[in-house]
Design a protein that fits this description.
Blueprint lengths: L9 E5 L2 E6 L3 H9 L2 E5 L4 E6 L3 H8 L12 E7 L5 E9 L3 E6 L4 H11 L4 E4 L4 E7 L3 H9 L11 E6 L2 E6 L8 E7 H12 L6 E3 L2 H10 L7 H4 L23 H10 L3 E9 L8 E4 L2 E12 L4 E9 L8 E4 L2 E6 L15
Parallel strand pairs: 3-13
Antiparallel strand pairs: 1-2, 3-9, 4-7, 4-8, 5-6, 6-7, 9-12, 10-11, 11-12, 14-17, 14-19, 15-16, 16-17, 18-19
Helix pairs in contact: 1-6
Length: 353
């Protein structure tokens, strides 16, 4: 996959892949997403084209939402589970008419790619990132850039819609998806036109356009309670305990891991995830959480949020101790559980003009 960034970022290793973590600074990258327009590289993603005989049956058997009824030009977000109902990965599936596009982010991409490969029984699977580049445009006015610079009728592209447009004679796939919960768009373009496409995007004068990395995106995801499915987090609790069940379609009668998932559902959860705030800046991941001296859980992930000058994160606690508005103690100080979102994304209040 072609590297699209013009300045060299600091990297983080995720599942054996180096992923751009910070470009200018964590705070400036965050501001690009929340206040301006950010280009988020798709390094480490998998982008699989699945077509031919059995493609629909393959995805229908694996994805925990109905693929069979997904209309052309539409996308869905769900999980692929293994037989034990453990999360293989969070995936986006797009019906392209003559086949399907499946995307999975860097934290799950290797496992998703391998799992689908093992389950495939004759469908044609092509790794599109051999000669295409994937990136995201996210931010409150990203839609305006796409309309003005690329001439796309972006107002007609609803959430989880896919369209194609032509750029310098090459087809570009555009999907309205993203993980910051701002206006967000995914681009899949041939390597031959990517440099020119990025240059055109950066020429927009209606807002500052800059690159942003994983660190800033992690903060945005935590702020709004978006599922983070790293191996470290998923090893601590099942998807019901983590509150990720909204990506599951329970009425779907058959998919990988459903039987075990329903066993977990009927058994009930023993732990629940909370969103918390900590005064100051600290890496709290893995720290023990106590309530009135009793150990009640552990910090799953934490990140410094420059917008509020505090550390935020997820903790997994014993169910009876998990509630909003409660103070818990760590060796490092006190955390307070809060409701989501910590920061209301600007895009939630902005209509397309």
């Amino acid at each position: 996959m072609r590297k699209i960034y013009t300045e060299e970022p600091r990297y983080a290793e995720v599942c054996g892949t180096l992923v751009p973590d910070i470009f200018a600074s964590a705070g400036e990258d965050y501001q690009a997403i929340r206040q301006n327009i950010a280009i988020l590289p798709g390094d480490g993603y998998c982008a699989l084209q699945i077509a031919g005989e059995g493609a629909e049956d393959l995805l229908e058997s694996l994805v925990a939402k109905d693929v069979r009824y997904l209309m052309p030009g539409k996308a869905l977000e769900s999980f692929i589970l293994d037989e034990d109902a453990s999360v293989v990965g969070n995936v986006i599936v797009v019906n392209q008419g003559e086949g399907y596009l499946l995307l999975s982010a860097y934290e799950n991409a290797p496992e998703v790619r391998n799992f689908i490969g093992r389950k495939n029984q004759g469908s044609q699977i092509v790794d599109l990132l051999e000669d295409h580049t994937l990136f995201f445009l996210e931010g409150p006015t990203s839609w305006k850039l796409i309309r003005q610079i690329l001439g796309v009728d972006v107002e007609s592209v609803a959430l989880r819609d896919m369209i194609d447009f032509t750029y310098q004679g090459s087809k570009v796939v555009l999907i309205r998806i993203g993980r910051s919960t701002e206006y967000a768009y995914c681009f899949l373009a041939e390597d031959s036109v990517v440099d020119s496409l990025i240059a055109a995007i950066r020429s927009f004068d209606g807002a500052k356009v800059s690159f942003a990395g994983k660190a800033a995106l992690d903060v945005c995801m935590i702020e709004t309670g978006y599922p983070i499915t790293t191996e470290t987090i998923m090893n601590h609790g099942n998807l019901l305990e983590l509150g990720y069940q909204w990506l599951i379609q329970y009425e779907k009668e058959e998919f990988s891991g459903r039987e075990k998932l329903m066993d977990l559902f009927h058994a009930g959860v023993e732990k629940e995830k909370i969103l918390f705030i900590f005064e100051g800046e600290a890496d709290l991941t893995g720290k023990t959480v106590r309530f009135e001296g009793e150990k009640v859980g552990e910090i799953l992930v934490s990140a410094y949020d420059s917008a509020i000058s505090k550390t935020i994160g997820y903790a997994l606690l014993k169910k009876n101790f998990a509630a909003a508005g409660v103070e818990y103690t760590l060796d490092e100080g006190v955390i307070r559980s809060v409701s989501s979102p910590v920061i209301r994304p600007l895009s939630w209040s902005l209509a397309m003009e």
